[in-house]
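Progress against Task 2.4 (sequence-to-structure conversion) is shown through the following example record, which the project officer requested during the mid-term review.
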Amino acid sequence: MGNVAILPYSVGGNGRYRPRGVADWFFDRMVSEGTLGAVFFDGSVKSKDDFDALLSGSTVASYAGYYGGGLSFFFWLDRFEHRTAYIHFGAAKAENYRNAIKIGEAVISHVFQRSSGAIDMLIARIPTRNKQAIRCVELFGGHRCGTLPFGVWLDDEKRMGPAEIMYFTRR
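Structure tokens generated for the chain above:
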């Protein structure tokens, strides 16, 4: 898909692993851009070690993404069950605005093509307050299934909050 390149970071602990510095750099970028709390709204990642542990977990398939030659996003899949998986995104702020559709379409296409038919649906759970993320997911082909009134933990508010359930299906 054009200038988008997607490389495995760590896939289920199977040895495909990118250098730790890649995740550290991206973590620092999320912190400097103020997006860490939006991506990890549940408070599960607060340090570089947390981020690396998440991306290299044995039940996670994680990928680093490059747009125009530079690292601009990560995405990871987890909760693999019955031909579905949950998908999570973290993108550099500038990429969220300018190239979201191109990047998002490339990510979804990559997952469905590389899964060799093992994944038929991807699910995303996004806090309802994150209108920009919801709109981006819709722009690159995601469908809104509905709202769960207590769908996510909002760590900054120390409470459960509503979440939009979004999905993608194999075309």
